[in-house]
């Protein structure tokens, strides 16, 4: 998605949405999947995170009001798949957990994903669990809602099974 690179430098009011419209024909989930693939190379510095976030926020905010139930299910599936394989890319780019934490919050705020959807994850290795826990902890910190840990995450079997990891990672990342 060259659009992500163009977004960094162009005036957003005059941005050419042709490629997004073309991809969107296959569903917002396809846009999210393409975005996830593009950020592997496009996020190389901390400054790139906010630009990429504004790009995907603009797209999701625009399209999220006109989605069907099946669209949401597809977005959940793509999100889980992206989170599942994120650990394959984070050794080379630690900014990916930062951007995914923000995208995770965006999807939750737009009601396209719920914490309980994480329950669908299964058969993960330790690196995958660690990476997903990092993303979710960073998302909880970014949301500035400390109750998320107790009221949402620790109620999920996914995190009850790795409660110690979740609490230690949250404490470390939040500085508490």
Can I get a quick summary?
Helices cover 68% and strands 0% of the residues. The chain contains 10 helices and no strands. The chain has helices at residues 2-9, 18-24, 28-42, 46-63, 69-85, 95-109, 126-143, 147-151, 157-160, 163-174.
Order of helices and strands: HHHHHHHHHH
Low-confidence stretches: none
Shape: globular
Radius of gyration from the alpha-carbon trace, in angstroms: 16 Å
Question: What do these coordinates show?
Answer:
The chain is an all-alpha fold. The protein has one domain. Helix content is 68%, strand content 0%. The chain contains 10 helices and no strands. Helix 3 runs antiparallel to helix 4 and helix 4 (46-63) runs parallel beside helix 6. The radius of gyration is 16 Å and the shape is globular. The termini are far apart. The model has no long low-confidence stretch (mean pLDDT 91).
List keywords for this structure.
176 residues, mainly alpha, 68% helix, globular
Chain-wise SSE layout:
Elements: H1 2-9, H2 18-24, H3 28-42, H4 46-63, H5 69-85, H6 95-109, H7 126-143, H8 147-151, H9 157-160, H10 163-174
Helix pairs in contact: 3-4, 3-5, 4-6, 6-7, 7-10
